[in-house]
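Problem: given the chain below (100 residues), write out its structure.
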Amino acid sequence: MARPFVPKIITANDLLEGDVIYLTAEGRWSRTYEDAVVATTQEEADDLLRKAEAQPDRIVGAYFVDTAVDEDGTPKPDHFREVFRATGPSNYFLGKQADA
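Solution.
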């Protein structure tokens, strides 16, 4: 029996700045996890990954991330690795955590 599909988003690293970024519905990149477009089928996920990989001048290392989706359709990281990546470096004086 086939395993049920788990919703996915596409993540990568910004080629020039190295930041963790997420593919949006508009085909742009955001540094905010919740801005990511959620694929609900494998075909959608494959299409999003192709779009991401077609931007080698902007990103590096694009891949699928299984994601949780809240009641309004917003993706939420559900694995500790992605929670860590979404919140930035562990040094509180740099990156996304500077605003916290």
